[in-house]
Amino acid sequence: MVKAKNYIGQFHPIVWVLLIGTVLSRGSAFMTLPFLSIYLSRTMDLSPIIIGLTVGMSPLMGTVGGFIGGHLSDRFGRKPVMLISLFAVAFVYYGFTIATGQGWFILLNAINGLSNSFFEPTSQALMADLTDKERRMKVYSLRYTAMNIGASVGPLIGAYLATASAKLSFAITGTTYLLYAIVLVYFLNKLVIQNQGQHVKKNVPFGDAFRIIRTDKALRYLIIGITLINMGYAQIDSNLPQVLEGKFENGVVIFSSLLSINAIMVVFLQMPISHLAEKFRLMQVMFVGSFFIGAGLIGFSFVNGWVTAVLAMVLVTLGEILIFPSNSLMIDQLAPEHLRGTYFGAGQFRKIGNFLGPIFGGFLLSHFQGQIMFIVIAIISLFSIVFFSSGNRSFLKMKSIDSKAL
């Protein structure tokens, strides 16, 4: 009991509110978005490319909104940006319940991506604001674990609702985000955040912040590398379900089970693997993560049943456990205190990979086959190692210059 109390006491109460909210909101979101491509293919006569465009519209808008939202949170505070974003996401899912044409789905998913891109870097920046440096890797790992706790349950419910009532899943998700926003309003008003204003003491104009980001080579290489990773990882939600449904009679069940396996692995392995990874250099961890994701994608190209599908998902999951929290920590290390939200927002440019991945994968799937698609995408993802290596050299060079200046 004492150990649990001490563990909880390591972090600010707002951090725990955000973590719990992440579990609930991501769980409900995973009931819907992974099955959006299946829903569109069943209810509308759309090509895989158009479905990929619809699914990819969310991350495309995320690349635009992340930097803007993160910078706004540096200038005007975390609270207004987060709350407006959450209420907007709730509106999106309610909109899905009444949307009838592909144009509406594209528009709503674009708003969804824009709103989430405002919320995610701002919430990460707030967690960092409220957490000591030595505990931030733990916070990022807990956040990623929280996302997957929700994701471990969401797909199972979503698999049922995808065949029973997809619109009900949209309504449940919208309500969850609405309640999350209301609870966050209450706690942000009740709890005084002592250092909430510290990050806005240097009020950097948008143009100057953009120039700082643009000239940071280490950040630029990091974003390019993680973008290539996201191009590969995006196939899991966009083109993998179409491949499985086309190859197997119970493709939807296999897909939802793979998502649950992925999430359960992250829930139970994220913290111990992160603890082990702390013994190695950050870039070494990211290199290994890239390799596992590439190997998993190649594994999906040879899927012929449950065993090969599960093995491929295990490899992809090990890769994401290593690479995604490490990416957050790397951005945190690169960011000046007064531009933390801006840097986390700039990190959202990686979502261009989530936009291009479904479209390019859909093109390959339409003109060739699933095996060719996964192999090509895997090779692209493995090229991330080149950019991570270049970013690491720039980062070490920058640290060397700063130490000499001191």
Describe this protein's structure.
The protein is mainly α and 406 residues long. The protein has a single domain (9-405), classed as MFS general substrate transporter like domains (Growth Hormone, Chain: A, Up-down Bundle). 82% of the residues lie in helices and 0% in strands. The chain contains 18 helices and no strands. The protein has helices at 2-9, 13-29, 36-43, 48-76, 78-98, 102-129, 136-164, 166-190, 206-214, 217-233, 240-247, 251-277, 282-300, 306-334, 340-346, 352-367, 370-382, 384-405. The radius of gyration is 20 Å and the shape is globular.
Task: Provide key terms for this protein.
406 residues, mainly alpha, Growth Hormone, Chain: A, 0% strand, globular
**What is the number of domains?**
1
Listing every helix as H and every strand as E from the N terminus to the C terminus, the arrangement reads: HHHHHHHHHHHHHHHHHH
Overall spatial form:
globular
CATH superfamily: MFS general substrate transporter like domains
Per DSSP, the total helix count is: 18
Q: How is this structure best summarized?
A:
With 406 residues, the chain is an all-alpha fold. It contains 18 helices and no strands.
